[in-house]
Design a protein that fits this description.
Blueprint lengths: L5 E4 L4 H21 L3 H22 L7 E7 L2 E6 L4 E12 L3 E8 L3 E6 L5 H13 L13
Helix pairs in contact: 1-2
C-alpha cells in the first residue's frame, strides 16, 4: 500500500481566465447574431457574466469556493478551498489528463469539476498530479535508481 502523499498548491492562471472569458464572449456574440433584439443582447450579457464568474472562481481562484490545494494519497483526494474549509472528495471514473491540463470530476460530497493547468502548479508537481490522475498512485523511485 502506498503511504506517500503529495500536496499540490494551486496558483491563479491568467491564461485560463482569459480563455474562459474569450470563449464565453464568442458564444455571446453568436447568440446576439442569431437572436435579434433585446432577448439576444440580454442572453449575450448573461453569457459574458457567466464567463467572468467562471474565470473568477476556477482560474483566478478568488471566490471562497475556489479550490486552492489538493492533497493526494493513493486513491484518496482531499480538497482545500480558499475559505479554509477542506473535505475528502470522491472522484468520478472519468478524468481528462493531457499535456497542459488535468480535469478531475468530483462526485461526492459535491459534483463539480476541478481544472488544473500547467501554469497553476510547478513542473514536477504537475507531472506527479498527471500520474496520480491516470494511475491512482504517486510515482516512486527506488533508492538504487537515484544518482549518487
Amino acid at each position: 500500500m502506498n503511504t506517500r502523499s503529495l500536496r499540490v498548491e494551486l496558483a491563479p492562471s491568467a491564461a485560463l481566465a482569459a480563455a474562459l472569458v474569450v470563449l464565453h464572449a464568442a458564444a455571446a456574440l453568436c447568440l446576439a447574431l442569431v437572436l435579434p433584439g433585446a432577448g439576444g443582447l440580454a442572453g449575450a450579457a448573461v453569457l459574458v457574466a457567466l464567463g467572468a464568474a467562471a474565470a473568477w472562481r476556477g482560474a483566478l481562484l478568488r471566490a471562497a469556493s475556489s479550490v486552492r490545494a489538493l492533497e493526494l494519497a493513493a486513491e484518496k483526494l482531499e480538497v482545500q478551498l480558499a475559505s479554509g474549509e477542506s473535505f475528502a472528495a470522491g472522484l468520478a471514473e472519468r478524468r481528462y489528463v493531457g499535456r497542459y491540463l488535468v480535469v478531475l470530476l468530483l462526485r461526492r460530497p459535491v459534483r463539480r469539476p476541478i481544472l488544473v493547468t500547467r501554469d497553476m502548479v510547478g513542473g514536477d508537481a504537475f507531472r506527479r498530479l498527471r500520474i496520480w490522475a491516470l494511475w491512482g498512485r504517486l510515482p516512486s523511485v527506488a533508492p538504487k535508481q537515484l544518482p549518487a
